[in-house]
Each structure stands twice: as structure tokens, then as C-alpha cells.
From TrEMBL:
Organism: Kalanchoe fedtschenkoi (Lavender scallops)
Superkingdom of origin organism: Eukaryota
Coiled-coil region(s): none
InterPro entries, alphabetized: At4g27190-like_LRR, LRR_dom_sf, LRR_R13L1-DRL21, NB-ARC, P-loop_NTPase, WH-like_DNA-bd_sf, WHD_DRP
Phylogenetic lineage: Eukaryota, Viridiplantae, Streptophyta, Embryophyta, Tracheophyta
Membrane-spanning parts: none
Ranges where the R13L1/DRL21-like LRR repeat region domain occurs: 671-798
MF annotations from Gene Ontology: ADP binding
Ranges for domain Disease resistance protein At4g27190-like leucine-rich repeats: 843-968, 969-1082
GO BP, one annotated term: defense response
Protein name stated in the entry: Uncharacterized protein
Record key words, sorted: Leucine-rich repeat, Plant defense
Residues of the Disease resistance protein winged helix domain: 434-496
Amino acid sequence: MSTPDETQTMLQMRYRVKQLMEEVLARFQKKEALLKKSNLWKDLQKLHDKISEVQSYIGDCVRQNQVKLMEKIEEKVYLAGDFLDEVAFQVLEWEHDSDTRRKVLTSTSQTPETKGMSETLDKIKTSLENLIVEASKTYNLQPGVIPGSDLTFKKELELHKSLRSSLENVEMIGRSEELEKLINVLLEPGKDEEAPLQIIPIVGQEGIGKTTLARAAYDHKQIQDHFDLRIWVCVSTSIEAKWICGKILEALAPNRRVELDSADEILALLLEELGGKSFFLALDDVSGTEADLPRLKLLKDCLLRLNTTRRNKIVITTCSSKIAEEMEMHNQFHLQKLSDDDCMAILNKEAFEGVQLKDIEYSINLARGIPFAAKVLGTTVNNSKEWQTLAESVINDKDTIDIPEEDKPIFMALHLSYLHLPLGARQCFSYMSMFPPNASIETDNIIQLWIAEGFFQSDSLIEMEDRGKECLHILLYTCLIESAERDCYGDISSVRLGRTASKLASRMQDPTDHRHRVSVHAQQQLVQAPENAELHTFFSVGNDVSYGKYKFGHLKVLNLSKSRFRTWPDAMEKLKLLRHLDVSGTTVTELPELISKLFYLQTIRATNCSYLGKLPTNISALKSLRHFCIDADNEAIRKGKFPKGVCNLTSLQTLPLLIVSEKPSEREELLGPLKKLRGKLTVCNLERLTSKDAEGWRLMEKDGISELRFEWSTNTQQTSDHMEVLDKLQPNNKLKRLTLKNFGGGEISMWKKAEAVGPDSVSLTNLVKLKLSNCNKCEKLPVLGTLPFLAELHIEGMENLNGIGSEFYTDKTTGTTGAEESRAKLFAVLRKLSLMYLANLKYWSKAEVADNEVFPLLEELRIEGCDALSIAPSHFQSLRKLHYESVSSGVPLANICTNLTTLTSVMISSVSDLQDLPEGILKTNPSLSSLQICNCPELKQIPNPGTWSCSNSLRSLTIFECEKLESLPENLQSVSSLVELILGQCHGLKSIPSLDGLSSLRRLKIEWCRGLEKLPSGLESCSSLEHLTIKGCPSLTSVQDEGLSKLTSLCSLNILGCDKLTALPFRELLHYLTKLRRLEIEGFTEETLGLTIEYPGLTGWARFKALPGPFQSKKIKGAWTIDPELLPAFATKAVGFLEAIQLFEKGVKAVKP
């Protein structure tokens, strides 16, 4: 008698074989009209009958658990399916060759085109006949036995929808003490003199809650307030320093494209982005072996070089104690298993109502204190009456011997979850073993791959992509895969497979599938078919591509993303069955023309290919193409020749970029037939389009498009009516994001509903983001205030816009009544608003409603390059971030700041007429933490801190290029929360008030203040000061040595370009500044330094083995440079700590020893 697990395996095989057979049989209908007229039809009918006869034995084969026979059946059906694919491909070729088509249709005997097919058909029929004999005679199977139906996607989806979703469940249970301790460690200042940067490892087995704990700390309000920057990087698949530093930079500057060759170059950019700010960096899931220790050391060195303040903290999560020991610069957090009570709390939270108590108690024993296992078990116990029986079969599974004991709770929980999947979802899960553990997988990509492998069949009710999304959500709900990233709308954009789940997926791969697949990622062999195998799937990701000795005639999936290859596979045109091609992240310069002969292609992925400029011109032949994934901003593609005949691709769903043709015949029906388009679409060269052409595009019918970007060229003589064209391009009301660039019409209508009035007349009611860029002929803005979901609005470069009036908020011409107007607030959910480079904008009027009825949630306001603006509204009750730049008048700034109480960050720059800082900024905003004032040449004074409400919250104060500013507030030292003070190019500033009492100050930077004669007093009380820079202050004559010597936290000291500075007791300072890591001194004589420079060629320290004078008692950690000719034989046993020092030669007599 078979075990429950064996029965489940057989059911899975039955599902796959049944699916393959249905797919094969369905193909007879697709080209039936053509094949019926040829002499192939009779043979194909016989093949159809044989497949149906074999299918009748599958039920009894499952009932008797005849695994070997089922594998034989599956292999033969694979061959039949491949043959049918070839037939269908040949039919498509006949359709493109009229002579051959006519010959095949009219011939009554075998033709050269059909003779070979008939011979292959005979072989397949014979093999199927042999299978039928073997089934009936050898195995004594009976036809027509039905072992039971399997769950369908539709039925299982309905079941899951009836349960509460756990996809958003991030509540942490049983770790409150650990969280409190971790937060305390993150908040405390660094204490270790030799390790100003603290690296805190969280260690424990998989599923113990390391990431959950780190994320809870990362999102904690105290942590958000304490650090200037927070950065989260999921490491998982790589511990290469360059890759991780690149990810950190990507998180800090998402719009910055980085293509650098070394970690050092990336580090330089990182230091620029960090700008001395404090940061909390979380490196999640750092893994490796002993062989990776050198790379870990390099990574650690790179991270240490990022350190600019002793407040910086790094948390890493890892399963490896060795990694933790190598990386740690603080005590480790070792997470222990949860108690039974905590596991019970997790299970009760996840379990469906009505679950029997005995099943929950049984689950607690299975979980063994692992929270993730408890969570998974909670989801499985929701929906199976035979749950405990299946659980026992999983526990007794002999194939888990090689699973480490500590991983078994998770493995068994996931295995049980897998057994509760519908059979169709199981093959989707096992397919994910083609990717490395924890690799980030784009959701669109994995769904497209599932479709290419034939896991879903299209029907008239639901698209295959939607089936894929349903399957993805089932896998997420059952915790077999995890959400990795979300897009700006909160939708899951990528997923990942954990290490233990990856092991399970590998074990659950269908043996027949495994023999036809190869997957190599970064030299790591994940799936390997036998040599000389006929491949269906070939992954070579991040490698130097080698095609080996495999056969590619039946290849369906070719993934060469991120790989290095100079040539396409030999005989590319013979990949007749190819459905999915991925060359993303490669250096390909063209997609070869022969691709247009691969009629089965469903997906082409060529994103992040910066060199790609040439696309196949005859892409219209790819009638099966569903996804054409390229970068809309790829300049090489935009400058090249865009393929014609896109309108013939009626199955197309993904088309990120469309360039309007110059030929009228290729424009009118360009998008009209593409009814299935979805996702993002950018349309360029719209000046070539007429209103008649635009009407034929029928965008209103395409409800799958979520983002649209319309672009007109600026360097064209075309004079089409932009307003009429835009009016005919009205998108569907489900659109979420819209960009108009270089629109040449005088007005933007925003497509009102002609048949409606009042608020109901508004179109685009689902719009979330809107950008209007360089619409230079527009004289007024469209009505935007009534868009109910508009969260971000960006307006830039509208030269003819003179004012923003009441029409910006609501339309007074639609007959709106007062009652209708009061139904919703104006700009009800807007959170970000940018007005940039509106050179002639003179006024921005307030709305004709109460202040609390407009912009109720606006948090960020940016006004830049609006030089003529003279007035602005004051209804911003929730504003937190204000950026005001390149506006002549300070009056609009004062208007905006009236009655504001919520500001946390203010940037004021290039306001030529600003003489006084608006009083409200400092007086009525108690949470203000950052204030920057730059290039305000008329600013003469800053209000006294006695009137500030932010004395306990202001952390950063920057004043730059304010030439007439003669003094700072006398009692600046009362701003006790100040962490950073930066003063630069304030030439009228002669002195700085006392800093006595600023014990929180960590960074003081004074640059290019020509009139400054002395440094502020009270420096000695700045006990937390870590960075001191004095640069370009030619009038400065002295530095208080007593003050400097008490700065025991100082890590970096830079004194440059201070020509009159005559005294610096350098020798004595070195004995006090024990934490100093970086020293840069310029423009001093030997006497100034307080020691005799015997080796005046010293300019940096890259190859230094020892130092002169007082340095010889210091350990040398950094890399130093010196002219070898000036370097004598120093003692080699120096000990000290300086990482970098520069002693410039200016003023030093150069004498060779």
C-alpha cells in the first residue's frame, strides 16, 4: 500500500501528464483548417487517438502507484508535444511562404515538406502502441479508472480568498526583550576606541526570526529619529564588496546609474552621498563558507571606510557563527527558540477558525520553537481534514536524512505546505529551483517563464498571466516563497525562495523535467541534465556562456541574462520551439534579424542592455509574442529604427516603448489592435500623429495599462494640433501614472467626461502620479484638485505659465453645487508636490475653501527655479519637508511658512532678496531637525534661539554663501540637540558665538570664511565632536590648543588654506587625540607643526612602514604614500593608529637626507 506522500507524488505526475496531453490534443484544433486539407491530417488523427487511448490508463496507473510506467508515459507525451510544436511551427512557415502553402494544400500525395513529418509520426504512434500493450499486459492496468480529481486553480483560489491574508503579517511575537536590547545598542554612542563603527551580528538558524527582529528595529520610530539615513540590503546571493557597495549606493540614490569597475570607485560615490550623515545599515542574510572569509574581510574593510561618525551602526543577519565572528565589532545577538506559548500564539494567529485543538498542539511539537515553522504550519492546518495523516507521512519521510537537524522543522513545515498546494501550483513551485536560494526574482519574469514551460493554458475567461498571479499569491500565502520587494503602488514586484524552500523545490522537480533542464548561475550548477540531452530549458546567468554538448532543437527557454557572450547559439534560427528569450543585463548591441523567424516566441527580455540599439525589423511575424521587455529610456533604441508592424502582434501585453513612425500608413492602426496591453507604455515622437491616427489607437479600451508617458520631440518642424491629438489619446480610467513631456498645446484638458457634471465629470479617478514636463505653450494648469487618489504631482519647465489660479483646485464651470464641492477635500491625498523651472510664474493663489479643506496630507513641497514668483498660499497643515530654491523673492516663502507647525526639514537656496528668515520656520515648528540656508546674499541675521521652538530637535544647521551675514545668534549654544554645524563662504562673518554646552555636536565644518579671525570658544565642551574641518579661512590666526586637546572623540581633523595660522601644538595633540583616524594639514612651517620635519617630501602615506618623531609610538593601519627618494631607512617596528594623513609641502624646506 502506498503512503500518502507517494500518492501525492503520483497525483502530481498524473496532473503533469494530463496537462501535457491536453496541451498536445488542443494543438490539433488550432491549425485544423490548414492541416485537414493536407495529407498530414489522417496521420495526425491517428496520433490523437493513440494519445487519448494512453490517457485512459493513467487513472489506474496512479491507483496502483506504477511510477516507472508513469515516467515512460510522460517521456513519450513530451516527444509527442515537441513533435506537435514542430508541426505547428512548420505550418506558420507555410503561411509565410505562399508557394509552399499552395503546394501542401493542393497535393494529394506526400510532398518533401510533409514526408519527414509522416515518418516521425509513425515512430511516435508505434511507441505509444507499445506503451498501451505494456500497460494492459505487463501491468494489468484497466482503462477508464478515475482515482479522484485534483484541485483546480479556481477552486483553490476561492478557498484562499475565504481566509484572511497573511502576506502583510509582520507582527513579531516572542522577541520583545531582544528588540529592546537591540534598540538600546543601536542608540548608544560608540565606545570602542579602535572600532568607531559598530557591526552587530544577529545569529541563529533559518526561520528563527533574525530578519523579523532586524526589520522591527529598522522600522522603529526611535531608530528613524536617531539616524539620518537608514539602508536595507538583502545580501543573500553575494558577499562581493563591489556588489554590496553598489546595492547600498542604489538604495541611497535610486536614480543614479552606476557602472563602475571597482569597489573603491563606488566607495568614493558612497562617501559623497553619505556626506558625513549618520546611518543605520542592515545587511540581511549574509552567508558563505570558510572559503569566503577573505571576501568577508574585504567587505568589512570597505564598510569601515564608509564610517564618518561613531554613531553609525551596521546590523547583519546570518546563520553562520564564523561569519558573525569575522564581521562582529560588537557582541552578537544569538536568537534562541521560542517557547511553546509563543508558538501557540503564532499558530492561533495564522490558523483558520474551527481548527481542532489537537491539531494545533501537534503543530507546536512539529515547529520545535521555530517561529517561521509555526507560521507555515498555521497556514496549512487551515484547509485539510487529513492534516495529521499528511504530517505523519512528512515526519516519516526517509528522504530527509541529509537535511540538517536544525533545518528539519522548517523543511517539514514547508513540505506539508507543499502537499496542500493545488497540483498546478506544485510544478510552479518546483520550477523555482532553477534560481539560486534567496535570489530576487521579478514576479513578471517568473510568470512569463511558467507560461513558456506550458504550465497554464489560455482560455476566453482569464489570461495565462492572471493564472500565474493567482498561483504566485497561493505560494506567498503558504509561505513557500517570500516577498522580496514592492513597487511604488505596494504591489509585490519580486519574490525569493529561502534556502530550505529551495532544497524542497529541488526534491520536488519532476524527474522527466529534470532531464531536460540546465541552470547555471554565476558558475553554480543548480540543475544539470545528462550530457547530450535534448534540452527544453537552458539558464546561464552571470557566466561566460558555454553551450556544452546539449541539443537545442526543442529548446523552449533560453536565459542568458547578466552573462558574457559574444555570439548567439549556433544555428539560432533552428530554435524553432523557443518561447522565452532573456538577454537582460548583457552587452548585446542588437537582437538579430533571425529572431523574427522564431514564430513561437512569447517573451523577449532585453532590459538593462545599455549597448542595445538594433531591434529586429520584421517583428510583426512573431504572432505569439506576449511580452517585449526593453528599456523605455534606452537612447540607442530611441535613435535606431523601431520595428514596424507592431499592430499585428495582437497577443502583445508588454510594450514599454513605442516610437511613432514617420509613415502615415504605419501610424493609424499602431495601437488599436493591441487590446491586451498592460503595464507601462512610453510613446515617443507624438508630433507625427494626427488626431485621426490617435482616435484609431483606442486607448480608452485598454484598461490594463497602468502607466503612460507621452513625449513630443522638441527639435521638429511638425505642427500637428497637439491638443486634438491628446484629446483623442484619452486613456482608461484605471490609469495610475501619467507623464506629458514637451506637449505643445495651449491647454491640458485631462479628458473630462462630457456627459457628467461636478465631481463626477473628472476622468482618471485612479491616477496616483502625474508629471507635466516642458509643456511650454500651456498658459494654465488643468483642474487637478478633485483627483481622489493623486499622491504625487510634478510640474516643470512650463515657460508660458504665468499663474496658478482657482482652476487648479476645482472646475467652477461644471455647475458644481456647494454640497457637491464639500463631499471631498481638494488634493485629498496629495503627499508630494514639485513646481520647478517655471520661469514666468508670478503668482500661486490660495484655494477658495477653508485651509483645512485643501492639501490635508501634503508632506513634501519643492519650489525651484520659479524666479518671478511673488505670492503663494499658506494652506499646508501637514507639511514636513520644504525645498525653496532659485526664487528671487522671500515673500512666497513667508506665505508658505505662515501657521506651519509640522516642518522637519527646510532647504532655502538662491533667494536673492531674502533679508530675514521667516520667523515661523524656527518659532512654530518644534520638530524641525534640519535647516539649510545657501546662496542668500542679502541675508543679514538669523533670529535668536530664544524664540526657537526647535531648540531640542534641530540636529543639522547649514549656512552657506550668505556674504552679508555678519554674525550668528549669540546663544547658539542653547540649541542642545545640534549634531552638525556647517558654515561656508560667509565672508562677513568675523566670529562665531560660543559653542559651550553643545555636547551633542559631532560635525563642525567652517570653509571659505574670509573675515573669520578666530574659532568659537567652548570647543572643549563639545565632547561628542568627531569631525572638525577648517578650510580657506585666511584671516584666522590661531587655534585654541587647549580646546582641541579636549576633543577626545575627534576622528577626523582637517586644517587647510589658513595662511595666517601660526601655532598648532601638533606634537602634544597627538597624545590627547587618541581616536584620530584622519588628519589633513596644509600650509604650516616646521615650527607650526611643533616637531622637526626631517623628511619634507612627505605628502601622503601609502607605502610607509614607519613614521618620524612622535608617530613612531602609533600603530599604522592605513595606506600611505611618500616619494621613495626621500624615504630613509625608518624603524620597521612602529605601532600606532592613523589611517590617513596628508602633510602638504607648502612652507616646508625640501632637503634630501
